[in-house]
Design brief:
With about 500 residues, the protein is α/β, with parallel strands linked by helices. Helices cover about 45% and strands about 10% of the residues. The model has no long low-confidence stretch (mean pLDDT about 90).
Amino acid sequence: MRSLAGDVIKHAFSQQTDEKLHRRLYAAICSCILEGGLKPATRMPPSRDLASELALSRNTVLRVYEQLQAEGYISARTSSGTFVTDSVLDNLGLAPNKPPVSPATREDHASLSSRSLELLGHASASPRQWGAFIPGVPDVHSFPHRALKKIQDRLARRLRPEFLTYDATGGLIELKEALADYLRTARGVRCTPDQILITEGIHQALDLVTRSLCNPGDNTWIEEPGYWGIKNILRINAVNFSAIPVDEQGMVPPACVEPAPKLIFVTPSHQYPLGPVMSLGRRRQLLYQARETHSWIVEDDYDSEFRFSGQPIPSLQGLEEDAPVIYIGTFSKTLYPALRLGYVVIPKPLAAPLMKVHNDLYRGGHLLIQAALAEFIREGYYAAHIRKMRQLYSRRRHTLVELIISQLGEDYLGPYSSNAGLHLILQLPVGTDDSAIAQQANAQGLLVRPLSRYYVKEEKRSGLLLGFASIEEHEMAAAFTRLAGIIRINTE
């Protein structure tokens, strides 16, 4: 027997496109109830009648009715039939008589904090993280994935319970011990395993240090130009920063230190993004000022392993005993970014409280991969991989330098090149709009970054950051020729 409810369901059923008949019927009845076509207390068509009307098997209709009943859309009454549940819309928070929320109220409720809005106004992370000339991304193809996977598979066959639960100790002790040995030997860092905290990359480390040691409104020093990620972490934590100029010897500490900075963020071994190495005199001056003002220096040693000539530059942290330095490093550049593992070497007075803050805020994990990485380091794979990549990146850097000279001229090479790292600066003529060039290049799949975006003050150098690590040498010439064409159009 035909019914009004059956007609409503039939129309809704005809609008559904799912190939599975039971899913089409389920979606049709749900939409009828939620949109008011079948009101609360409406009697549903008998299963046999609805099956006949829709040319379905009765079992299909019964299956859908059972699901709808289980989810509270409909209910069966003995000897009376099946009805739309009286309170279904109230239960779902969709009752028609519920006062509507005005657009203004919704907008107020959804508004972001002033800190978030400021950060969004300076957001700089690229939506694409692989391709020609992307800065800061290593060659992930060359990583010995099989070696690490073999270690990980071996550990997975005899899993320890602590690998599968929360980490409350700031990282696996085996990885901390392996890192302490490596950092003492390779970077001259003075530390013991209990001073090392494992983080999910440098950003988490910087956020932890900022939250733990700064109050809103406190002052900090950053490099000018400097890494955008530090600035955004300070912005979201409502911490002020003063941009301190960089020259060929690194950060130029001001003579007047009022107000005294709580934190001083530096990249002394390979300044980011310009590339100079902080001189010994500047290092000692900065350490002296930090002691005098009771400040902490935050040393970001993000890619110090990749120096292509001369001896490795030792860490600032290891220059003096008990130096007021928080040393931060990452595996994102030496291994691959998706690993999301970094580390902090914390001065002894801060180690216990910062580890407790980290445990409460971030709830560390990835203990199985940490265990595998510890063995990867101890078995020599890590050092061997760095040696291999140092040679590879040196060749790629040399190729890019030759392309810049041959197609644009030596004047386009940045003045602070230290023959290190994963990128170099292509210097543009004064007054050139590097942001416009970067935008045009990005549209053609050339992932360069404008140097001007790294400055805070009005006086800015114009240039492009060109990464050379993630593009093979035989592909570099064609890509750079396209980039050079864009540059010529904008500078002639």
